[in-house]
Design goal:
This protein is an alpha/beta fold and 278 residues long. It has 2 domains: 163 residues, NAD(P)-binding Rossmann-like Domain (Rossmann fold, 3-Layer(aba) Sandwich); 89 residues, ProC C-terminal domain-like (ProC C-terminal domain-like fold), CATH 1.10.3730.10. It is built from 12 helices and 8 strands. The relative contact order is 0.09.
């Protein structure tokens, strides 16, 4: 990345913060990245792995970067925004540009602006909801922006963190649904892989091979959808030979409510994100 590219601050060292740091260090100088977390042992791990600047002071990180990613738990987010607000206000008074990138499901841009207050009502905000597999470079980052200025900053951010995967800009009323679809699926799929592997273990296959073979099958099916644009139903029909083992297994899944359970799982997860269930 060009030497004059703006500096990046990442507040929070969980899965999402790590994925963003991993993507950033592939295109930026470590000197242009600052990671913050109250726990010293966590940030020291980042310093060792990435060679970037690290601090236990969130305000120091916010002062350092033009682009400030806040990747903390939803219930912590308001407190962190309150903490760094004076730093952002002082930067604004000096004419220094800041762009806020909150990573928090269910917290709207309007709510974030409400927390930040009147002085920061025009700060560019790019709301990003990454997936846990972003650290593999194949994540989906669901994004929404506050205004046209924020849209321009989105393009810069997309380039800065492109090694994390695909950045999709969408209306804010879709971002939480998109994040639910892409973000919850790994957990559901992992349960499916584990259950299928258990079935093969029951038939005498060693567990290591059972997990590997089932996971490869899931990966292959996903690749056909993503890379070859095959419809899931088309893939299922192609594998199901008349009178064969696969159609017998499909029938068993249907009898036991597999499709309905999957639909209801993602439905309930989406309702939770949208605040429509406890």
């Amino acid at each position: 990345m060009e030497e004059n590219m703006s500096k990046l601050a990442i507040i929070g060292t969980g899965n999402m913060g790590y994925a963003m740091a991993l993507a950033a260090e592939k295109k930026m100088s470590p000197d242009d990245i600052c990671v913050a977390d109250p726990l010293k042992e966590k940030v020291m791990g980042y310093a060792t792995e990435f060679g970037c600047r690290c601090t236990t002071d969130n305000t120091e990180a916010a002062a350092f970067g033009k682009y400030v990613i806040v990747a903390v738990k939803v219930f912590i987010l308001p407190g962190v925004l309150e903490q760094i607000r004076p730093v952002l206000e002082e930067a604004l008074e000096r004419g220094e540009e800041k762009v806020l990138i909150p990573i928090a499901a269910g917290v709207s841009i309007e709510k974030i602006k409400e927390i930040l207050g009147e002085k920061l009502k025009n700060i560019p905000i790019v709301r990003v909801l990454p997936t846990v597999y972003a650290y593999l470079g194949c994540g989906l980052m669901s994004c929404s922006v506050a205004d046209e200025d924020s849209r321009a900053e989105f393009e810069v951010l997309k380039d800065m963190l492109s090694e994390a995967g695909t950045f999709e800009l969408m209306p804010e009323n879709m971002i939480d649904l998109a994040s639910t679809a892409s973000g919850c699926t790994p957990a559901f799929t992992a349960m499916f892989i584990e259950a299928m592997a258990d079935g093969m273990v029951m038939m005498g296959m060693p567990r290591t091979q059972a997990v590997d073979y089932v996971a490869r099958g899931v990966y292959g099916g996903a690749a056909l959808v993503l890379e070859k644009s095959r419809h899931p139903g088309e893939i299922k029909d192609a594998v199901c030979s008349p009178g064969g083992s696969t159609i017998v297994g499909v029938n068993t899944l249907e009898i036991n409510g597999f499709r309905g359970a999957a639909m209801e799982a993602i439905h309930q997860a989406a309702l939770k994100v949208l605040g429509k269930r406890d």
